[in-house]
Amino acid sequence: MTPAPVIETARLALRGPGLAEFDAFAAFHADPARCLGFGPVMDRPKTWRWWAANIGHWHIHGYGYFTIWDRQSGRPAGICGIWNPEGWPEPEVGWVVFEAFEGRGIAYEAALAARGWAYDTLGMTTLTSNIKPGNTRSQALATRLGAHHERSYDNPEMGDEELWRHPGPAEAQR
Prior knowledge:
- This is Acetyltransferase.
- 32% of the residues lie in helices and 26% in strands.
- With 174 residues, the protein is of the alpha+beta class.
């Protein structure tokens, strides 16, 4: 079994997924306005299966989505990490910030940390982000991270998506 590391930034702790933050993630996935760019609305049992798949993803690949913990409040603020399930074109850096934590730069800080870890520790040389067309907030964040829109493709889970290419390890901001 692959344990997820803990990555600390100035304000955040990225930790492996566990049950302590499941309720916050289930609330996110039950809200159609909130989960639109991440996946379909799911009830708790389906969300639990997705959460368990994320834990399994860590054990299969040695990486997955971290839970973002806000160190000041001690509460889960979202998820961010490297995701590459069957059917994905290649590993992606993905992010979700829960509603109470939006607008604070948390996704940017977490994505920089996760991407840096993927490059420095895992030895990855390229990453993408898969973004639904029209998701202007994620497009803006990808741009801020130095990524550019490379192409559109048919995501097996999400349908039409844009693949945004991140700069490689030598060019990426840290």
